[in-house]
Amino acid sequence: MSKVVKGWLYSREHEWVEVLSETRVRVGITDFAQNQLGDLVFVELPQVGAEVVANQSMGSVESVKAVSDLFSPVSGKVVEVNSELEDSPEVINSDAYSGGWMIVVEISNPDELSELLSAEQYADFALEG
Amino acid sequence: MQAQALKRTPLYPLYAQHGAKVIDFGGWELPVQFSSIIEEHHTVRTKAGLFDVSHMGEVMIEGPDASAFVQSLITNDVTTLQTNQALYAAMCYPDGGTVDDLLVYKQGEQKFLLVINASNIDKDVDWIVSHAKGEVTVENVSEATAQLAIQGPLAEQVLQRLTATDLSQIRYFWFQQDVDVAGIKALVSRTGYTGEDGFELYVSAADAPSLWEKILAEGKADGVLPCGLGARDTLRFEARLPLYGQELGADITPLEAGIGFAVKLQKEQDFIGKEALQKQKAAGVPRKLVGVELIGRGIPRTGYPVFAQEAGEQDEPIGYITSGTQSPTLKKNLGLALIRAEYAAVDTPLAVEIRGKRVEAVTVKSPFYKR
């Protein structure tokens, strides 16, 4: 059974969004996603200062077998990037919600958060998906 | 057109019990992994892994003219085979492009077993049948035949515990027929697609599930794991074994793909594609399969264009990546690339275009791994 963190928000692209403040969120991919992808060997993330747009590709994760796009769940400016993932992408597999965090975004449109799923909604979505 | 149901091997009912993650592989429902691709890969390199390769095709060619017929179909020389010996070959189109790569087992003076790629079964059978000549019969026995492969340094010692036949007597690319393995009749060959020592076992479809369980049970003490297609691909890639559809195809000759050792142009008998391959060799093979190592950050993948390092934005690629991954054993980002021959020397600086960005790379020696 994949883990889901209560109180956080989720996208249909299997990203999690932890609301840090009114203007900042932390983003990563869910336990379900890392399980689907398998052993991750490479991650490409946006740089600090880059703009991201909701539902558009912001980078990629690669497993042994395949490349998968990462879609940003929110729009805004990247203010922090988890540099540990460059050398140790496997942290996403072992610790998707904590050590596997990817970026922190200064969001430009808080309304976008209401389009995301709750933990319960995401759990249903991931099960039926 | 209605989508056809995915095909399954006789082992499909057992996959779930072993935790398989099943995918659609060219119309077949097969396990990409059981535990993890990386773990399975390392297990084959250090212990042994068991693969279900029953999706592969098998074609029996028999009759007084079987040898001459096979000789006319394949690039390699079947007359060098003794009974219970096998060889690796290609079948080519008249223009030298590849129909398939395959193993040919000489089971008798008038009996040859061809083992072909699952993705090419229908095409190959049509090809073989349409070229049949002389007194021969051609039978597609793919569905009735299952194949398991146990591969790794411990493969022999594990398998030996299940048979009274002395496996040490079976040399590389030789086989024995009607071997009793755990009470099941099998053709056992010392062949494989991983770059490790190991055996391929051909059994009836009905016997496959039982043999699978028996090998896994016996091998548990040695750490034998069931392995899927993901590890099969990373293992064969490190050993530079071609995959039809990537390193070989209708537009790629065996000489370009670096399997010229299986092309005996000097063999007396004619074979389909011989003239075209002779011409290509005489003129200088225009493209070559090379190993590529990424220097910049990125993983090369099938289809990514390859450029000379000094190439400008407007310059044409000099070739493309046929297969690529992060090598689990070597822990480097590596690729095989089919590129223009003049760039094929080792240590040639290149660039691989990864999602629009040119990343620094260099040609390196291959195979990347040898046991």
From TrEMBL, chain B:
Q: What is its EC number?
A: 2.1.2.10
GO-annotated molecular function:
aminomethyltransferase activity; methyltransferase activity; transaminase activity
Q: Where is the Aminomethyltransferase C-terminal domain?
A: 287-370
- Asked whether the UniProt record includes Transferase among its keywords, one would answer yes
**Residues that, per the record, bind substrate:** 200
Give any Gene Ontology cellular component: glycine cleavage complex
* Stated family: Belongs to the GcvT family.
- PANTHER family (UniProt xref): AMINOMETHYLTRANSFERASE (PTHR43757), AMINOMETHYLTRANSFERASE, MITOCHONDRIAL (PTHR43757:SF2)
- What is the protein name given in its UniProt record? Aminomethyltransferase
